[in-house]
Amino acid sequence: MWKGVTDGVNKILDWLEDKMNAGKMPCFFDHNIDVAAELSTEERRLIIDAVRLMREHVKHLLMASYVDQWDVDLLLEGWLEPLTERQLERQLRLRLGRTLVRQAVFEGVRIRHTAPCWECWWKENIPQLVHTAPLLLQWRHYTQSGAYRQQCLMFMAWVVVDSADLVDGTPMTSQVKDIVTLDVGPLMQLLTRSDLDLLLGDPDKVATWCSQQPRRPLEEQPAGLTAELDTPRGRAELLLKPELLLQALRVNVPGKMNQWRAIDQKEENRWMKNYRPMRSYQEIREKLEQHINTNLHEWLRVKLPEMDAASVDATAGLWRRRLQQLLSGDRLRTMYNAITGWWPDRWEMTSHYLAVHEADSEGKTITSKSDNNDDNNSNNKNNNNNNNNNDDDDDVNNNMNQNHDSRSGSRAGAVNTCGT
Q1: What's the mean per-residue pLDDT of the chain?
Q2: Within 10 A of 178 (CB to CB), how many other CB atoms are there?
Q3: 85-104 pLDDT, tens digit each
Q4: Structure confidence at residue 201 as a pLDDT band (50, 70, 90)
Q5: Sign of the alpha-carbon torsion through 31, 35, 41, 45
Q6: Dihedral angle computed from the Cα positions of residues 276, 277, 281 and 284, in that order, rounded to the nearest 10 degrees
């Protein structure tokens, strides 16, 4: 086991260099595949040189990566009292861990499985991949989910923080055979009152609501809420369960709930631009025909000014001939059908992936993935009636929505996290 982020990165770099020197590198999902098999000796040497350069500057690279992805204000605030180097390292670990935990809460809610942004993702990915690559579809959905990103961020926080840094030195791991379970409870101690204000709006009101739930009739109690919010376990139960967190906000802090609706809308608009429906056969054919009618010579001169006239003629001629071949007969149709064709469905799940609800009042069909349409409709109505909360919305967006694009998260490996 490594002793912190830098040590972990160095171990990975050591492993890469050893494998490149040996000339064989197993694929991470199938050890029978040799990733380095197609590399020449010179290419392997260049990779080894790059790995050594990364090792030499690993601390600077890690800090540059942090600044690029995260808000560094939390790391730099305060520092009025003089600290020893050891105290400084501990404070940096705690602040970085706190940043990651807070980010994990935000990511879990922002990309929760019921968030409206998934609608366009389903329409783009399910029809395209369910027939040809169902395992890839499952993998893509998992690695983009809020739960995955939340677990990755909590794992990163666990790597950064030493158990001795916490108030009571609570152990954060338990191991059974080859599986290490990470307890997120102790990490929740890192969150401060200001963090709870940012995440909950009114922590005292939410804490009162949480304490009342165990006294309600069993059938009315929200699932998974067993501890008080002022305990690490209670914080984990509420903050790392997006739907439960939003339920608490909806009941107790409607202004904060309006902020999340605004973030939902912003995220949905962003995803709609990123995930476009797959083009039909006819659309692809028309696009290729446009390329044939384009002045390829002029296009090549503009894009590749270093290419001489003879090369431009040869390239443009080859390009046009290949396009003509593709558009002749049924070649394009055959290729299109091969890409979008049927994949064996031995579990008979395709009908469930592609099921649609009845058309809504505007005649639109909705891909079947969530039963929260009524809730979303009521949320939209409330949002229209509460536009006077824009100042609070800006606070959340400025503080927490700065760096939440597809770069977020990392591969956490085979790690189970309690409470996530």
Answers
A1: 75
A2: 6
A3: 677 777 778 888 888 899 99
A4: very high
A5: negative
A6: -10
- CB crowding 47-84: b at 16 or more within 10 Å, else e: bbeebeebbeebeeeeeeeeeebbbeebbeeeeeeeee
- Report the percentage of the chain scoring pLDDT > 90: 23
Q: Where in the chain is the domain with CATH 1.10.1410.40?
A: 1-69
Tokens 């009342």 — which residue? 212
Percent of the chain surpassing pLDDT 70: 69
Which pair of tokens denotes residue 244?
A: 């439960």
30: which 2 tokens? 């199938």
Using an 8 Å Cβ cutoff, are 334 and 284 in contact? no
Q: What backbone torsions phi and psi does residue 174 show, to the nearest 5 degrees?
A: -145, 145
In sequence order, the β-bridge partners of residue 418 are: 183
User: Does the domain formed by 1-69 have CATH 1.10.1410.40?
Assistant: yes
Closest CA to 182 of 211, 158, 208, 149: 158
